[in-house]
Amino acid sequence: MHIHILGICGTFMGGIAAIARESGYKVTGCDQDVYPPMSTQLESQGIELISGYSIEQIQLQPDIFVIGNVITRGNPLMEEILNRNLPYMSGPQWLSENILRHRWVLAVAGTHGKTTTSSMLAWILDYAGLNPGFLIGGIPENFGLSARVGNIRSKLTQDPESDSTEVSPFFVIEADEYDTAFFDKRSKFVHYHPRTAILNNLEFDHADIFPDLLTIKRQFHHFVRIIPNNGLIVINGKDENIKQVLTQGCWTPVEEFGTEAGWSAQLLADNEMDVYFEGTHQDRLCWELLGEHNRMNALAALIAARHAGVPVKTGIAALSEFKNVKRRMEKRGTVNDITVYDDFAHHPTAIQTTLNGLRAHIGQERIIAVLEPRSNTMKMGVWNDYLAHSLQEADHIFCFTRDSQWAKSTLSGLNNKVDCHDDLNQLIQDIAAITKPGDHILIMSNGSFGGIHDKLLSALHKNQ
């Protein structure tokens, strides 16, 4: 079968393309911007890419067009598909019907921590020998890729040289609440039908598609409604919004983390914690990750893996070897004892949590926060009242935006700690000029930020 993917170069649709190709489908695709690294990654898998949305692509005659949620009405190829009444469906629907239908799906939902928790969970299952499939909105460093089918050597053959394989029953997916497609305004996660679901937390986000928090809660409850009663819902026991979702109706067993009544973690040192269940000590975790948010993510992953049959002690042993996810407090380099980090944080809660975790680790050493406010919700000004507060832990803040007036107004409460820029080269020069040995530069953006990380490291080298 041949599928042609519109909007193939996004992380999610690119993951679908890789999984489809690995499953034996012929895969082609198109996008407005076809360039490395996604283009080279897909082409190395034998996937033909086309730049743009020309109507001539109809002549490829795929069995079905798979539509990413970046595609809108007015897109020339989409209009031609509609005019000719050709078969099409959304990426989440295709994934559900062709890959997830007969799998034990473990889905990770929530405003924050989805990518990290999904990566932890996939790694625990893999460490336990279950070789899960997964589709994650980032690249777990333990795997080096964001998506795979999850094949295991077939039990039907005893020949160690045999290439015979079967699909692992387990599939871990990052369950996003963003809408599915222009023709399907339900959240993506309602397509996944998990047996095990993690609800990490719930805050207002995606103001471009959700008018208020109540609307998001409704989508989360649609998700809860399709989890079977032989499944498990793993919830953050400290999150009142998640609890309110469950009060609308819940037909599935629930386990809590973050409270003494359920699963909890006692911090012993920056990178060391004891894990408890209902007050009973389970084991001790020593690992590389920082912050309360990662301790909560770890508890959620341990519970979900336990539901799939992985003992807690095995899960903790796996997490001791967990290497985190690219762009989640990823250390990009150190020059003259100045450390540069890359983080995906783009919501005030995530920004504050990341800064708090770094502060707890480094003590009184200086933090230079570099923020690119580029998410739709940030640009719409929804978080204007919270953004300055979320950055207070930083010793100095650089904000990169074309709307410097907005930035100065929004961050005015930080007094003289803020510099606003609309020129990337000047921004890099100014950061390099004020840093000194022992500083920590935390770069936060949900985009590529113009390749600032390598450019800044280069500038720091020149300043030695």
Automatic annotation (TrEMBL):
- EC numbers listed for it are 6.3.2.45
Listed A to Z, the keywords are: ATP-binding, Cell cycle, Cell division, Cell shape, Cell wall biogenesis/degradation, Ligase, Magnesium, Nucleotide-binding, Peptidoglycan synthesis
Cofactor(s) needed, names only, are: Mg(2+)
**Which residues lie in coiled coils?**
none
Q: In which pathway does it act?
A: Cell wall biogenesis; peptidoglycan recycling
What does the protein in this record do? Reutilizes the intact tripeptide L-alanyl-gamma-D-glutamyl-meso-diaminopimelate by linking it to UDP-N-acetylmuramate.
Q: What is this protein called?
A: UDP-N-acetylmuramate--L-alanyl-gamma-D-glutamyl-meso-2,6-diaminoheptandioate ligase
Specify the species.
Nitrosomonas supralitoralis
